[in-house]
Design goal:
The protein is an alpha+beta fold. Helix content is 54%, strand content 17%. The protein has 3 domains: 2-106, Helix Hairpins; 125-173, SH3 type barrels, CATH 2.30.30.60; 180-259, Alpha-Beta Plaits (2-Layer Sandwich). The protein contains 7 helices and 10 strands. The strands form 3 sheets. It has a 5-stranded antiparallel beta sheet with strand order 4-3-2-1-5. Strands 7-9-8 form a 3-stranded antiparallel beta sheet, with helices on one face. A hairpin with a 2-residue loop joins strand 1 and strand 2 (137-144).
Amino acid sequence: MKEEAIQGLGKWSDKAIESAIEYGPKVVLAIVVLIIGFFIANKITKLIKRIMNNKGVDVSLQSFIGSLVMVLLKAMVVISVADMVGIETTSFVAVIGAAGLAVGLALQGTLQNFAGGTLIMIFKPFKVGDLIEAQGQLGTVKDIQIFVTILTTFENKTIIIPNGVLSNGTITNYTTEGKIRVDLNFGIAYRADLKVVKNALIEIMESHPKVLKDPAPFVGIESFEDSSVKLAVKPYCKPEDYWDVYFDIYELGKEALSNANVEIPFPQMVVHMENKS
């Protein structure tokens, strides 16, 4: 029994030595490749983050893309190391690919929003604080996230727009140029003195602290209505002052026209009654 045990132990030792001789160098090489691969992956990730930071890419996007690149690079290193030590990786890669496809189909809308958010953060058609109009909504940009953009309307409502449709739609940015035109309309009687009216309206706009001097405010005839002459009144202001100027000019314009004895007409109907008695 002892001899058999000694012989069995000897055979096991021989096989272990053979395996160590055969696979030892591969394992050592795999460990070296793993360490070097992870080191290079970290360096590449830091380089990508540095490039994005120099180009002013949003911090949250830097972190997300950096993490994604890190995971992909390290996964490639692990698969390569497994193949080096003799582990079959074909089926493993196929499973990962199938799982990735399934996840991609399940998260199709989410991935579209992610891609849209990435484009918005890279190309920056607007930034936080800008007044924009998009997807039928008008408001100030409160936050730009990786999947959605949040607006605050003038009614203090919060609007959440998915970045997928936002990046593929028309965006009107009222803040980019630093000034915005306020379009107003006043109706005056046909018999009113147009020169007096224009001077009165120009005066109140030029004296308003939030109306810009350049471009200069404008007053002109827009159309001839049934019972009035319709005037286009167009002051310019900063985007954040839009509603202050809008309401102030209407109110001050009404007072100015009243003080100048200018009639502001309203629709009227004349009824003729026939006496048949």
